[in-house]
Amino acid sequence: MAGLMTPNSLDELAACLAIGNVRVVAGGTDWFVRDVESFGEEDTLIDLSGVAELRGVTLQGGGLRIGAGETMTSLAGSPLVRTHAACLAEAAEHVGSWQIRNRATLGGNLAGGSPAADTPPALMALDATAEILSLRGTRSCSVEGIVAQGRAALAPDEVLVAFTIPLPEGRISAFGKVGSRKEVSIARLNLAASLRRSGGSLSNARVVVGTLGSAGRLCPGAGEILIGSLDLEERRRAFCSALVAVVEAAIPGRSTLPYKRSAILALGEDVFDALMRTSDEGRGRS
Amino acid sequence: MKIEFVVNGESCAAEVDSAMRLIDLLREELRLTSVKEGCGAGECGACTVLVDGEPVCSCLVPAVQARGRDILTVEGLAKDGQLSVLQQAFLDCDAVQCGFCTAGMILTAHALLMKKDNPTDEDIRTALAGNICRCTGYVPIERAVRAAADRIRAARS
Ligand code: FES
Ligand code: FES
């Protein structure tokens, strides 16, 4: 019969990983619906929910460190996340229903590998790095790198421990998504963007579109326009056109293209306006 | 594996395995049949129970995650044969038709009222967005939650 283990610390978790043929479950929102099918009689399930070190949001060495076991509810309600990683708080706030947000974790949202996941584009826009534990030790990898590799990025015995988001002075960020209905929707398209504002000038834009076949696609062209020298109206238009071009290149001929083309226009405007509003407020929000 | 937890204020212990969901533990082992399975996929909210005061879909939660937690089902709401204010408001406002969604609705609303004693209409709708009702059209449910909030505050002052 399949095994079951409940480590309470990272050390105990490491010991559990050593038995081999293991699968891990955190919030469980995907487990019985999707992952359990590939779980064999010889396998062992490790419940991560008791591992204390997977929780916590702290400022550490100039960055924001977020435990991979933090839930969508806790991220959306965290003053630190809201202040320093606004787009991540917004993404978390709009995942699924209240019931789902209470269980779904930041690590699980990335490890699940769904192209429609909401928090990976936000983590990418914030240039986050993931800390990954396995029997081979701890390694770190950019969220961008993990998203690029899809579900193959993590071996079955690898566990996301935490994310670190660098906090450059004056960074602001915003997130938007379009779904089929107002609440509880799976994103048909999402968009996260961050930039730095120092004095009157904007720099370091990172613009990420999700759900185009992968959980996040970095759009350097749109980023350049975002911080470019065009006046506001022209910049908004050019930004949206650049995003439309990204969508057209990503899913040429796909039946969803006309829908996504018009959706990205609306989303681009929303995110652009949110960023410019925040940057006008002149607060050090990020 | 044997786990210990609290359900509706009482300490419990149960044998769980990796295949068992929280809804199975509550319905099959503990016979708490107020917990209903609609979709079994986290979409309808009929299976909602509170874990440490937070609504969750018990069809998604591995039973082992009940370990050390405090779980509330509708069976734990009435006290001494007296319905809770929220349960009574559901009856008074005709917020129950077939009743399949009702236990989940009431628990989600209960969690909301524990956090916000005077929720806005928007708060109520956002909180209940994960609870689907095929009968009532939601208006009486919203009204019931509002009525309960008003009654609870009135009783306190
Ligand atoms: S039965 Fe659990 S959400 Fe539908
Ligand atoms: S009363 Fe029938 S589903 Fe809500």
What do these coordinates show?
The complex is a heterodimer of chains A (286) and B (157). By secondary structure, chain A is α+β, with helices and mostly antiparallel strands. Chain A has helices at 10-17, 72-77, 79-84, 86-93, 98-103, 106-111, 119-125, 143-149, 220-226, 232-250, 257-281, and strands at 3-5, 22-25, 44-47, 57-60, 63-67, 129-134, 137-142, 159-166, 171-178, 189-198, 201-210, 217-218. In chain A, the strands form three sheets. Chain A has a five-stranded antiparallel beta sheet. Chain A has a four-stranded antiparallel beta sheet with strand order 9-10-11-12, sandwiched between helices. Chain B is an alpha+beta fold and 157 residues long. Chain B folds into two domains: 2-76, Beta-grasp domain (Ubiquitin-like (UB roll)), CATH 3.10.20.30; 85-156, DNA polymerase, domain 1 (Orthogonal Bundle). Chain B has helices spanning 22-29, 85-92, 102-115, 121-127, 139-156; strands at 2-7, 10-15, 48-51, 54-57, 70-72. In chain B, a hairpin with a 2-residue loop joins β3 (48-51) and β4 (54-57). The longest helix of chain B is centred in the last third of the chain and has 18 residues, at 139-156. The A-B interface holds A 1-4, 6, 25, 28-29, 31-33, 36, 39, 44-45, 47, 49-50, 73, 96-100, 102-103, 182-184 and B 1, 16-19, 21, 40-42, 45, 48, 51, 54-57, 59-62, 64-65, 67-68, 108, 111, 125-127, 129-131. The structure holds FE2/S2 (inorganic) cluster (2 copies). One FE2/S2 (inorganic) cluster binds next to loops of chain B.
